[in-house]
Amino acid sequence: MQSSSSVIKDSNVLHHGERKINTKYEAKNDNSYIENLDEDVKQSMDSYESIAKGLIDNGRKKADVVIQNAFQQAEEIKKDAYQKAYYEGKEKGFNEAYEEGYKKNIEKARIQAETIINKAKENSNSMITSAKEEYLKYIKDKELEIKNLIITVVESVLKREAKDPKALDEAVFQALGVIKNTSTYIIKTNSTYYESLKDKIQFWKEQLPFKGDIFVVLDNTIKEGTAEIQRDNGKITVSIDYSLEKVKEAIFNR
Length: 254
Fold this sequence. Notes:
Layout: H1 4-7, E1 10-15, E2 20-24, H2 31-92, H3 94-162, H4 169-178, E3 184-189, H5 191-199, H6 201-207, E4 213-218, E5 226-231, E6 234-239, H7 241-252
Parallel strand pairs: 3-4
Antiparallel strand pairs: 1-2, 1-6, 3-5, 5-6
Helix pairs in contact: 2-3, 3-7
């Protein structure tokens, strides 16, 4: 399975009233936390797989029992045939009657044994096929549950990363890089990200082909994981949460 740490790296910036602008959000990895989340998914997937394989294994075991019983039954028929031939020989004169009884009963036993074994093989194949069908049905039934589990893990990672003061730095930088035809950027965000974004102003001016002003304004009405970038002719919203919607879309449209 793809690691949840890589699943959430692709994010988007929403351009209100116009178009979507693709950007990248690099989540700060807390390896132990993410590994624990990945392990939860892996354990759940392993559990589903174990149950599904058990369905096939159980079908095969039943099929083996059917075939084994058929061979045992065939051996008993052959044994009865030998005994019949022997007793008929004693009654009719051993040599000639035994030979006649042997051929007659052994041939009959052979046909009965083959019939039983062939029938058992047919039944065993049917059992294995049925087990495979049950396996596929189980996997299909669990598909939605597995997808929801992945969404839960990604959502947990995003919520944790959203508390990082630097969580929006890269996303805002990428958004500024694609915005054109403006003389001023006003970046509004809440207290979680305010200081970190403010500290980046000079760096952004040096890195971007932009000669205007960049302001970062504190606004605690802006929800967690979000920043608004106002420009001369509108605004865009940078949102970590939007990446969750893209993950959902990617998973449920597969």
